[in-house]
Design goal:
Blueprint: H1 3-6, H2 10-23, H3 25-33, H4 39-52, H5 55-61, H6 66-103, H7 109-118, H8 123-141, H9 174-185, E1 196-201, H10 208-216, H11 219-224, E2 227-234, H12 239-251, H13 260-271, E3 276-283, H14 288-294, E4 306-311, H15 314-320, E5 326-327, H16 333-344, H17 348-351, H18 354-367, H19 371-381, H20 387-395, H21 408-417, H22 421-429, E6 439-440, H23 441-450, H24 463-476, E7 481-482, E8 489-491, H25 494-504, E9 508-510, E10 525-529, E11 548-552, H26 565-571, E12 580-582, E13 608-610
Parallel strand pairs: 1-4, 1-5, 2-3, 3-4, 9-10, 10-11, 11-12, 12-13
Antiparallel strand pairs: 6-8, 7-8
Helix pairs in contact: 2-4, 2-6, 2-22, 3-7, 4-8, 6-7, 6-8, 9-10, 12-13, 12-14, 16-18, 16-19, 18-20, 22-24, 23-24
Length: 617
Amino acid sequence: MAATLVGGAFLSASLQTLFGLLASREVVEFVRGKKLDSRLLSKLKVTLLSVNSVLSYAEDKQIIDSAVEEWLDELRDAVHDAEDMLDETNTDALQKKMEAEAESSSESLVRNFSCISLNAFDNELEHKIRVILERLEFIVSSKSVLGLKEGMKDGASRRSPTTSLVEESVYGRDEDKEAIIRLLLSNGDVCRNEICVIPVVGMGGIGKTTLAQLVYNDVRVQEYFDLRAWVCVSKEFDVVSITKTISETFTSVDCGINDLNLLQVKLKDQLMAKKFLIVLDDVWNEDYLDWAELRKPFMNGVNGSKVIVTTRSENVASIMGTIPSYSLKQLSDQDCWLLFAKHAFSNPESREQPNFQVMGREIVKKCKGLALAAKVLGGLLRSKQDPEDWNNILTSEIWDLSDDTRNILPALGLSYDYLPLHLKQCFSYCSIFPKGYKFRRDEVVLLWMAADLLPPPKGKKRMEHVGEECFHDLVSRSLFQQSGVDKSLFVMHDLVNDLAKCVSGKFCLRMDDVESDTLISKTRHLTFSRTMHDEKFKMFYDAKRLRTFLPLTCQSLHGQFHLSDKVTNDLLPRLPYLRALCLSHYNIMELPESIGNLSFCGTLTSLTLQFRGYLKM
């Protein structure tokens, strides 16, 4: 399962949330006020720190060890339970504080609040902490048995370095190639008085590197520029290493210099009075000062010198680019088919067989214009002459096929790996949306707020603004895309949607994807179709710690929908940890009073309730 490849990284962000809760004033004061064992919270924190120290190693090792995958699943479930307990504690503390403020004058507020806090919890709280602590300690004690080590990573870089060499046949990029070449051959019309930097932006695996290779090797480009250099930048934006690679490319000799000053002086001399082209492939670094340092020698080239930067990030493009970024789009279905067929059919006669033609074109549709997916799946099927093998590929999720698809996941998984912790949580949460689902920014931001996934706002900034910035960051990293003409609607590429599903694992669930009759008990966030019949809701009773209850409407359907009274009167009161509850578009005339007993109803920032139509409370 592909979920085993990257899903554990979400835990790091959850642990940071827990550390914040453990240190919160409300939780600490209430635990002290109840005179609980003062060592409990400290012990819980130490245990969590011990877990955090092996996460990187575990996240890599789970790829080859299913036992580690199960260990991470159990750990993640226990961490979520700890979050629920501490959130419940924090919410109760805030409610008591509000009651104290309402009933007391400002002079006696501290005295009354202290008295209330002394009686705020019964022995149930201490019992909950001990149960969670014992569970976490048991999980942590298993790490040595599984060979998990602190402070180590088990994997190498997810992506091999790129080179300037290009395949003989490339499909669907002629227009893109000509557009970039026109920019390269322009002499001062595009950028005046500075080095011209052309950013090429697009999602992982779409073909940015291939396009750059095509341009780099075009005979017109070779004749136009005096010097050309190709650098695969990738993860580490090392100014010394990049400068050295550029310089050595011009001489094809190892210069033996590692001092940045000497390297830059040497490169400056090499570029003096020359028209050069430098390709910086696969750039992730968003530090402007690093770029400012690297480009110093570039300023000595003659007018018409160019730099091409390929990246997934609009932030990188805005920092490095001197002209608007060139956004690379997905391949057309026909071009994607031609690329797939090139790699899938070693025997031209097989390509003409009707069975292979029909299944092959259906497989290509799953690639959704992603060049890398078409190439990898074509190569996977190259040695498969049995139609049943092709059908197995067609009916399987790409992520579930085999290790032969390992090149697709790293290409997209890198976009996830490079996200800050809070963005990993936000992206993972969006796995609740089905493929092709069009969503609005404000809708998603409210859900993130309800799920407490956003970092705390600084200064006078509102939480909504923080959420909007996070949404923009995911758009700029090509994980969200605008959907068609309506610029207020966004969508995830199908394979990016699969990636989000892999990352979230069992904890985010789309009911329409569930084939069994039993809902996974670990599920915390749930979406389902508003047209779902009553029998399906029986599965929800197993999701006692559900945080998101979100019905989605097929965007071709409109109007009011029916929701059984059993759901509102019996099911919802059994889900006390709900934070996001949406009942819009349902024809509901009355809600039970028990809705007000949900654990997080006391804090508006923790619970998003959406109702439309006439409601009698």
